[in-house]
Amino acid sequence: MARRTDAHSDNLPGPFFVDRTCIDCGTCYQFAPATFADGGDHARVRAQPGDDAARLQASMALVACPVGSIGTDDKAGIAAASRAFPHPLAGDVSFCGYTSVKSFGAWSYLIRRSGGNVLLDSPRAAEPLMKNLEALGGVAMLVLSHQDDVADHGAYHARFGCERIMHRGDGIPGMERLVEGDAPIPLAEDLLLIPTPGHTAGSVCLLYRDFLFTGDHLWWNPDKGRLSASRAYNWHSWDQQLDSLEKLLAFDFTWVLPGHGSIHRAQSPAAMKAELKTAIQVLKGA
Fold this sequence. Notes:
Layout: E1 16-18, H1 27-31, E2 36-38, E3 43-45, H2 52-64, E4 70-72, H3 78-82, E5 87-90, E6 93-95, E7 109-111, E8 118-120, H4 127-135, E9 141-143, H5 153-160, E10 163-167, E11 177-179, E12 185-188, E13 191-195, E14 204-208, E15 211-215, E16 219-221, E17 226-228, H6 238-247, E18 255-258, E19 264-265, H7 269-284
Parallel strand pairs: 8-9, 9-10, 10-11, 15-18
Antiparallel strand pairs: 1-4, 2-3, 5-6, 6-7, 7-8, 12-13, 13-14, 14-15, 16-17, 18-19
């Protein structure tokens, strides 16, 4: 629980604050940028919520924080925020909130579909979220993008009996299904698993309609205004990650939904491909 006595000095005065336990995962200022901002090596409050909608969003960022580093002197709205996840993003796709310190605050997503709901990466095993997932039809499949973001996968399997799917290159004990190779793997008519080794040996992306869930393979960098990837946070092979980025040019999508980094939506699949080509050219020169 955040402590007012440990709050960073660059918080704007008011009820919400961020304290020194912050790990700068980015969740709060990506989800609620009107209230929170990047303070360098930590998040900070840039503006106090000015209305009920902004207060709810800030409270949801508090709930989503993996380490409990966000506090508020006024607890009004916290109960509602704890019940507000999964939070709809577009169509059948929602952000699960309740990020986990085990995956450094990586985002997890829910896909609601008639063939069975899908979790992409594991959120924190929080009872309010699990109850809401039950109300939405449960979880049939849990796709794990790579070994860094498995978090509380065991708790979700125990609760929902979901099939856990992961690439053997990152495979951990207990998975119901380990896939192999570099070729795309249809999981269902509307779900395509795309092996994208590089960040880790077994990194994968998941394509659902025009949504590409990318784990830590690819994300939007708002400071640079383009798609990006990280050579500094590459745990396997940077050259292989670049090759895997080029592989994505063969697929049509308009959304990039990462575990870390910002979400991005292009105007069309063609526009997304153009942006991806630009990113690859820049990254190859990095």
